[in-house]
Amino acid sequence: MARLADYFVVVAFSPGKRGNGDGQGQILQRFPEKDWEDNPFPQGIELFCQPSGWQLFRERNPPTFFIAVLTDINSERHYCACFTFWEAIDRSQLQNRLRKDEEEEEEEEEVAAPVQPAQLFAPKSLVLVSRLDHAEVFRNCLGLVYTIYVDGLSTSLETVIGNLLTCTIPIMGGSQPDTEDEGGARTISLGAGDRQVIQTPINDSLPISNCSVALLFRQLGITNVLCLFCAALTEHKILFLSSSYQRLTDACRALLALMFPLKYSFTYVPILPAQLLEVLSTPTPFIIGVSSAFQSETQELLDVIIADLDGGTVTVPECIHISLLPEPLLHRTREALSMVLDPGLEIADLAFPPSTISASSLKMQDKEIRAVFLRLFAHLLQGYRWCLHIIRIHPEPVIRFHKAAFLGQRGLVEDDFLPKVLEGMAFAGFVTERGPPYRETDVFDELVANEAQRMQADEGSKVRVLQHIKELAEQLYKNENPYPAVTMHKVQRPTEGSHLRLHQRPFPRLDEGTIQWIVDQATAKLQTAPPVVRAERKCMVPSGPPLGTLMERNGLVLANSARRLEVVRNCISYVFESKMLEAKRLLPAVLRAMKSRLARQCLTQELNLHVQQNRAVLDHLQFDFVVRMMNCCLQDCSAADEHGVAAALLPLVTAFCRKLSPGITQFAYSCVQEHLVWTNLQFWEAMFYGDVQNHIRALYLEGTEENHLAQAGEEGSQEDGSILEIAALQCRLWPTMSPEKQRELIQKEESTVFSQAIHYANRMSYLLLPLDTSKNRLPRSSGLGDAESVSNSFITNSIAGSVADSYDTESGFEDAETSDVANYVVRFINRFVDKVCTESGVTNEHLKGLHVMIPDIVQMHIETLDAVHRESKRLPPIQKPKLLRPSLLMGEESVMDGLRVFLMPDGREEGAGGSVGGPPLLPAEGAVFLTTYRIVFKGTPVDPLVGEQVVVRSFPVASLTKEEKITAQAPVDQFIPEGCAQLQLRSCTFQLLRIAFDEEVASESVEIFRKHLQKLRYPQHIADTFAFTVGQSIKPALQPKAKEKNPSLRTISKNLVKNAKRTIGRQYITRKKYTPPPWEHRGGSQQPFPEDNEDEISVSEEVDRSTLTPATLTIRPSDKMTMSNLVERACCRDYQRLGLGTLSNSLTRSKNEPFRISTVNRMYAICRSYPGLLIVPQTIQDNTIQRISRCYRQNRFPVVCWRNSRTKAALLRSGGLHGKGVAGLFKSPNTPAPGPSQADSTSLEQEKYLQAVINSMPHYVDVGGGRNTLSGFTSAHMSSSALGHRARVITLSSPKSLAVKGRLSPRGKWGSIRASGRTSSYALNMEVGSRLAGKELLGAPPNGSPSEASFLRQHRASLYIIGDKSQLRGVKPDPLQHWEVVPIEVFEARQVKTSFKKLMKACVPGNPSAEPSVAYLRSLEESEWLTQIHKILQISVLVVELLDTGSSVLVSLEDGWDITTQVVSLVQLLSDPYYRTLEGFRLLVEKEWLSFGHRFSHRGAQTLAGQGGGFTPIFLQFLDCVHQIHLQFPMEFEFSQYYLKFLSYHSVSNRFRTFLLDCDYERLELGLLYEEKGEGKGPQPFRSVWEYVERLNKKTPAFFNYMYAPEDSEVLRPYSNLSNLKVWDYYTQETLSEGPSYDWELAQGRPEPVEDPGPPDAGAPAPSRRRIVWPCYDNRRRVEPDAISRLLEELQNLEMELGQVPGRWKETWDKLKAFQRAEAQEDGGGGKGVSSALLMASSGLSHQRRSLGAYLQESGVGSSAINLSLDGDASSTSTPSSGKPGGRRSNTSTLYSQFQPAESENRSYEGILYKKGAFMKPWKPRWFVLDKTKHQLRYYDSRLDTECKGVIDLAEVESITPGTPTMGAPKMVDEKAFFDVKTTKRVYNFCAQDVLLAQQWIDRIQGCLSDA
Question: Considering only 317-321, 510-514, 819-823, 1373-1377, which range has the smallest mean pLDDT?
Fold first, then answer.
């Protein structure tokens, strides 16, 4: 029984000292005046009676009632029911009080005048204090007291209050019917004619909520309440706001009711008084209610969740993250709550809804909501009893909860919510309260135990779920209202408006004596009454179903898991049967399977089967296998060990062992220490408690067997009983046992725990002490040092990480105190022992004994380990794979021999067997080699399934862009040792070496490797690069011994630069200039650096360029010599091919030429980065050029580099305008100029220069309408551009405008220069487009091709100047001029560099990502590489258009050597078919990139000086553009895509000298410019990439494009939209079988093995010819050659078999084509030629952008024509190139002849001529072929001969003159039939058969020359 009320208190208003209406509460009377012994009087009640403060009011308020809750120091809650009414206060009385206060406070001189209202009312509170929560009863009782007072009833107040204080009621009433009343309800009367029924709950463990939960949901809604619920469970601070105090109390009560069965154990104050608001700043969690009057004071709280009950909102601060329920529980809970709160929701959409909806009453709805949350907790905590550890049963059960196991079995380890709940205080209280196995049970226990299956079955059905909720709600309702029928209340209420009476007497002072007497009487009566005996309702708590059903929560059991487990079992059985080969084969699969939890558990079970008597001795190999499997198994376990795998392995690591020597055994634990789990104190605690529980169970099972207790028989068989059942039985028997028996059991249990503690101290020392204790390694994490962090510390190593070598290996560990390792382990074990022994009740004596014992245990183990470590060192090391040596190029020498490394996966999926499938080739084990040329990795995959393959990855040292040390993100693989040095080497050839050095490689060796790498990558001078040092003797660096310093570092560095020039940098030292020796002295063996000349190879860059005239140079060979050398350069040959002028002024035709070859720069005095010979307008004198050049950056003035043979429009290039040149003078006219004459004359000359270019164009006069002289204008009119403000400006920055539409010439092929929307700022705007195209843009076809041909406008500019927008800002157009300025925005070199870095990271990421394809595409877009390609192509197509319509173009961007070079090269490639041949492309690169000074060394950071600049791939970008054009027009290029990749690779490889240095001047300086001609023929490395290509092209068709079938004078116009561009496979492909395939000798080194099949068995199936081709491993071009390559190969093989000398591939190819042509011509009719003609067409396979009309004649059925139009353009008809539209052909073969390969089209004229041989050689007849396209005169032995015997390049021809017969000339031939062809090299003598033929030949050759 319990008292209904403990205290009754009257609290009144006491005025404050200021008299301003604010006062304080004062207790007038309290009853009883003495505190109850069991329940002291709570302090501070007066604060809670008026939470907003005690104040006077001007009017009477109606009485109020609320319940405040106070919590005492013992966490007992006191319910304070406060009934407040207002009394009028006497003014005089108030003033008297104030006067008294004034007298007391004399120091205050002035007192504020008191407020003088008409009348004031003061609050007075009647308070009941109780430990029971019966709100309605308290309201009625206090209301009765007030009614008696206010209505003046006759009943004595003292009697009523005395009865109230002496009323007792049962705490639980349901099961115990009261004698006075029917049922178990308690009826009370306070003696005023009243009657109340108090219903006590059936079970007091269930909270009482009345309607509060339902009200809370109505106020806040489902989502908000769930948010608060989760916040309360995860220990956040929650604050309720409301203007109603009772609502605050109800809301707090409701939140606590929802948390059942967990109990809130933090600060709980439903109504917080104003004076205590600072409590809200407390750091601990709380649930507090505050009046909304104080809302403003809560705004500053940053970590408090505020629920506004009146406004229905919940505010969560930004800094707080609330973990919500795990899915699908959250969704199910929301669904169930909406069913309960809104039953009409389900039927809202029905056409005929039921007429009545049975809505629950508010009280019932309240219980239904609670039922939903009860089900929620049953779901969350289902099976919790299976994770309880009972570590003591007597005298009191001690229970611990295994959180990790519970989370692991639920599959909620990664969940955010449940782990936090389990860590919380509420759950700790839950385990303490509900853990004991023998206690009273309630609805929650039954739900968890018995309803689990039902709840799982109901999940799908809403009806069944609702049914279950209603059943539970009934139980909860019945618990609160056991007897709903008994509801008779009879309590008087005051009359209406009684509180407003004017003359109401104050509340009387009560008589203490009377009340005290009533209380004393009742107390005496209670003491004499017999004690109430409560029936014992304890029972064994049911455990419910185990968690097995919840193992795979989401049903994620993999289909092949059974297969995996089978593999694990087989492998282990092979190991123990010593079938090591089979085990080795299965091991990788087992290690992969270890990712699965089931496989890990299977491994522990299988290993367990092989342990007999706690010991299993293995041989060394078996031991290694077992340890590797254990390590892999533990590697995937977290430190918490949720799945118990580490726990299962713990006994096994002390069981498996191997004999090292007699008496010395090594156990597996010494090899599996490097795992987090062993340093986690919580893991050891859980393990310890689990073992203790098992031993205690065994203890009681033995007892039952021995004694055959009768009880055991009653309980049934106990052998199978769980520990909970045994504990319940023992708890039940405990009271019946004798004290001796009790003491015996306590002592036995304590001994069990103690012995386990000793056992665990040993176990922990096994796993925490490292095998090599001499290293004195300390823990890596700081967590071990401080006791607080230990329990949750995650230490990344075994307890012993590494510290300095402060320990001497010999000394051992005589004194454990001096050893850090021993100390740490001892302290760790001591902390563990303290914690578990204190919790499990071990006696102090035993605990002290343990503390003494632990250092000895550790010490003994260290001594054992010393011996084991010593012996294990003597074991023979595991056989490592033999190092494979890479093959080297001729002249390539090894610098560092192989360092053993592992090549790691680098984010490219293919090699690691990712989504592509295939075996994991990486990681691979092998060695890294450093040579003078390359870094090479060569090894084999660690996965034995592909172990026989060889993996090679290499790249040139010169292409290295980044070398960095990296740290392992996670243990990468079982095979790779942890903690070894790792390097990441990234190359601009798109290779990445991510290597981990083997533990045998000393760190010194790694550093030496890095130093050498750095030295080779960035040599002091260009002369130290491989291209120069190749062939010179370089002594390789001695391979350092493992773990030993390398003694020969100094000698290596000397050898590396033995023959190089030793200067720090050219710009600081001025020496004599290098003079190239004359040709006679230049032999093949001549070294580029003669030793005696070493110091004379430099030039000063400090001389000002403007003052550098030829007179200042010391290069003084004879003029003739210099000229002959310059003429041999590529640019000069090309100028002559193009007919752009000749050097000899004596020739008559040069006078008419508009351009001439100027030698003004032959000494490189005007511009160092230009070639020696330049094309300038004929009318411009050389002395003018020097002045003009100063206006341009780097003195790169405009020069002609190409001319359109049809329109005669010229393409010019130059640098951008110089800011400090003439343009600068015009920008600021006020600055003093050097002299007006100079400025005027320069700008005038510049204009003259441009006008001279315009005058050179043949149609200039027609278009311009007369010569326009510029001399009348002065430089005063010039604006910021030196071109004058009269020049017209075209802006190319309108992003959405359409493309230029040139006229569609019959030769043109169209792509597009349409903008791609957001990326384009180059598309022409409307006005410019229409001016260039000559018609409106509206009719533009949708695919970006031009519309019908329409000629350009009449006023087309003769010269367009394409310049940088930023330089040409402010230039105004002028209609009088004949040039226009086209300002465009271009990207800078640094943007290219940044973009390239991002491109490399996209293609070779370095780290594997979760979604490779998405990450790749995202990175590719971010790099903007394709956007830059798009821009370059767009500008180039624009220039091509302008040139093709007859306007000249000057490209004048940046310094004229980056983007300018890209654009002019692409323009020539698109416009001139010659440059699309192998020879022409070489010429283009030599002319535009090498001669015109692209800064290869600077952009490629080839030397130490350029290291800071980084790698900027301008040339690679150009090659990528060519690749894009090649993809769109594959039939137009003689060379293949491989050729472009080959050049890309070798432009950065430094294998050849071609792409070294920045300009011809620097090459001349080093003597490189002319050396290639004079090379000897000895076996030496190639120095020029072109020579190498030429030689290689003779051997193999690798560079040849079989689809080459050019159309004559074809102009290409590629599409440049981003959607048309493809990522070049050069960036993404790799061949791991042989490394990059661009060093041909290395790639061909390993021939494909041809298996020789033995004689076939009669019954055996035929051997399969299939072979697997891995995309990243094999060289697909060689493994699967194209059909033509295969045929050529077969022909060669047949020739060898037949004993013939195999012919060259080109000869075979040409013969084949000639034969096809002949056959096609002979074949007059019929269908028999079709097949051969089709074969013929295979050389020029139809491309999608080429029109192809095919007319097939069917024999005998008449003629049906099929038109196959594969046209990519917008033309509607197919026009064969013969020009006859739709001409009907007789058969297919003639049709295909128009697509014949190049040879027939290239023979412009052919016939027999006699040619005189070289000196002293006879005349011989030869078959001569004049080739207009290639600009050659070729000759053969005979007409049928396909091998060309010689070539005369027409570009070198200077003149053709009549000849005279010489000795040995053919007789009978007219003298006039002789003629001579003079070239720059020699004079050729020819003789025709007659005079007519001779004249024809002369005319044809002259015609060729003039056409060019």
Answer: 1373-1377
Per-residue pLDDT at 768: 86
Contact 1446, 1257 (CB under 8 A): yes
Region label for 53, one of left (φ > 0), alpha (ψ between -120 and 50) or beta (otherwise): left
Q: What is the DSSP string of 1856-1886?
A: EEE----TT--TT--GGGEEEEEESS-EEEE
3-class secondary structure, 19? coil
Ranking 94-108, 481-495, 1111-1125, 1587-1601 by mean pLDDT, the lowest is 1111-1125
Q: How much is the CA Rg of the chain, to the nearest whole Å?
A: 50
pLDDT of residue 245: 92
pLDDT (average), residues 490-502: 75
Coil, helix or strand for 1442?
A: helix
CB-based contact 779:800 (threshold 8 Å): yes
Q: How many Cβ atoms are within 10 Å of 1402's Cβ, its own excluded? A: 22
Instruction: Look at the chain and count its residues.
Output: 1908
Token pair belonging to 237: 């601070």
User: Residue 725 and residue 700: Cα distance in Å, rounded?
Assistant: 11
- How many whole angstroms separate alpha carbon 176 and alpha carbon 185? 9
Say if CB 1787 and CB 1725 are below 8 A apart: yes
- Residue appearing with tokens 């390789």: 1036
Please name the residues in contact with 1728: beta carbons below 8 A apart, sequence gap of 6 or more: none
Going by the DSSP 8-state scheme, the letter that residue 277 receives in this structure is G
Confidence check: pLDDT of 887 > 50: yes
pLDDT at 455 over 80: no
Phi, psi (degrees; rounded to nearest 5) at 1610: -75, 130
Amino acid code (one letter) for 1774: S
pLDDT in tens, 130-173: 988 888 888 889 988 888 888 888 888 888 888 888 888 876 65
Q: Would you state the structure tokens that stand for residue 1557, as one six-digit string?
A: 């240095």
CA distance 239 to 306: 5
Question: pLDDT value at position 912?
Answer: 60
In which residue are the tokens 């367990």 written?
608
Is 146:83 a contact under the CB 8 Å cutoff?
yes
Q: Report how far Cα 775 is from the mean position of its chain's Cα atoms.
A: 38
Please say whether the beta carbons of 1710 and 1690 come within 8 A: no
66-84 pLDDT, tens digit each = 999 988 887 788 999 999 9
Helix (H, G, I), strand (E, B) or coil at 484: coil
Q: Residue 987: beta bridge partners?
A: 960
Tell me what the pLDDT averaged over the chain comes to. Answer: 75
Among 929-943, 945-959, 1043-1057, 1825-1839, name the most confident range: 929-943
Q: Is the pLDDT of residue 725 over 70?
A: yes
Tokens representing residue 1332 in the block: 């260039």
Q: Parallel, antiparallel, or unpaired for β 1611-1612 and 1308-1309?
A: parallel
- How many other β-carbons are positioned within 10 Å of the β-carbon of residue 996? 25
What is the pLDDT averaged over residues 542-555?
57
Helical (H) or strand (E) element with 54: strand 54-55
State yes or no: cis peptide before 1579, omega within 30 of 0.
Answer: no
CB-based burial label for 1841 (10 Å; 0-12, 13-18, 19+):
middle
On the CB side of 870, CA atoms within 13 Å amount to 11
Closest CA to 262 of 374, 172, 386, 171: 374
Reading the block at residue 969, the tokens are 């993100």
Tokens representing 702? 């033995």
Both tokens of 1589, joined, read 């290509």
Nearest partner of 776 among 796, 806, 799, 797, judged by Cα: 806
- DSSP labels, 1370-1410: TPPP-TTSSEEEEEE----HHHHHHHHHHHHHHHS-SS--S
Per-residue pLDDT at 1396:
94
H or E, element range at 217: helix 212-220
Please tell me which of 475-479, 498-502, 675-679, 930-934 the model is most confident about, judged by mean pLDDT.
930-934
